[in-house]
Amino acid sequence: MSALLRDYDFDLPAELIAQRPLLRREDARMMLVDRAQGTIAHRRFAELPEFVRPGDLLVLNDTRVLLARRFSDDGAIEFLFLEEMDAQSWRCLVKPGRKMRLGAATVLDSVAARVEKIYDEGERLVRFERAIDPFRAGQIPLPPYLNRAGDAEDVTRYQTVFARAPGAVAAPTAGLHFTPEILAKLPHAFVTLHVGPGTFRPVQSETITGHRMHEERYAITPEAAAAINSAEHVLAVGTTCVRVLESAARRGGQLHDQTGATDIFIYPPYQFRAVDRLLTNFHLPRSTLLMLVSAFAGRELILQAYAEAVRERYRFYSYGDCMLIL
């Protein structure tokens, strides 16, 4: 298995990056990748129930995307609110960073704000003159490759129909295809992983082992742990669920209810302990998510599948089509 970043690259025409969701969630195309047979087939997401076997349990991420994108009162500074540190301080991403160096100040909601710390990854600790609710008038934070501001459609569609635990700044996109009707047909359980901006952070080192994975908060309820432990097979919906399940399972034995943070980095070779099947969207070249999927299905088969997806004009990334790995 390759540890070189360049071996997780592929050519993607820009026009295949889905800029808007389909009219109906369930109309996404679904590529079938059979690991045992090494085959690729083409179906629709609405057909997913046909591939769920007796004893299978779908595990989905119920995190809810926060309206975390804000602008200073003069419009000059963009904030992405990540974490409340205390009543008056927030960990944020800011743009442009050159205008918000240590000690720099601005105003948001008529409240003065000052940069008190710059973290290693470039995030800022911003202290406000008094407590504010940054999400009250916020925008949905869309991924950087969409190159546009979120609008009213995104508030609904860049959110799963089962989202209920606020805390993410990016959606668990494999879950975006589900409707209440399809979900009701399938045995399922929920875990929570609050997706952070690190999911879009590029790998900078030429060897993937040199990459430091971002940390994300997760939770498993007693009910979810019991359902997962009693399932014959687990079908993880999205790489975020894989990260939760494999982080919990690597501690040995059966899953138990827990909360914590994970910085697990899954790349080939990796022995999966908790996940038997995977539903996932199509990911960025050279991304940690592509490496995770390659660990699950094999790098050569995944790159073959991605090449076919390009030829067949699949829609890529957050609002794009999906892949079911059997």
Structure description:
The chain has helices spanning 152-157, 180-184, 222-230, 239-249, 288-297, 299-311; strands at 29-34, 39-44, 56-61, 63-65, 69-71, 78-86, 89-95, 105-108, 111-118, 124-128, 165-168, 188-193, 216-220, 233-237, 258-262, 277-281, 322-325. The protein is α/β, with parallel strands linked by helices and 326 residues long. The protein folds into two domains: 5-65 and 142-325, QueA-like (3-Layer(aba) Sandwich); 69-128, Thrombin, subunit H. It has a nine-stranded mixed beta sheet with strand order 2-1-17-16-14-3-12-13-15. Strand 6 and strand 7 form a beta hairpin. Helix 5 crosses helix 6 (299-311). The model has no long low-confidence stretch (mean pLDDT 94).
Q: How are the strands ordered across the major sheet?
A: 2-1-17-16-14-3-12-13-15
Q: Which residue ranges are poorly predicted, with pLDDT under 50 across at least 5 consecutive positions? A: none
CATH architecture of the largest domain: 3-Layer(aba) Sandwich
Q: Give the termini separation.
A: 21 Å
Describe the oligomeric state of these chains in a short phrase.
single chain
CATH superfamily descriptor of the largest domain = QueA-like
Count every beta strand, where a strand is a DSSP E run of 2 or more residues.
Answer: 17
Task: State which percent range the strand residues make up.
Answer: 25-35%
Q: Roughly how much helix do the residues carry, as a percent range?
A: 10-25%
Rounded radius of gyration (Å): 20 Å
Summed up, the helix count is 6
How many domain modules? 2
Molecular shape:
globular
Per CATH, the class of the largest domain reads: Alpha Beta
**Alpha-beta classification:** alpha/beta
Mean pLDDT figure: 94
* CATH topology call of the largest domain: QueA-like
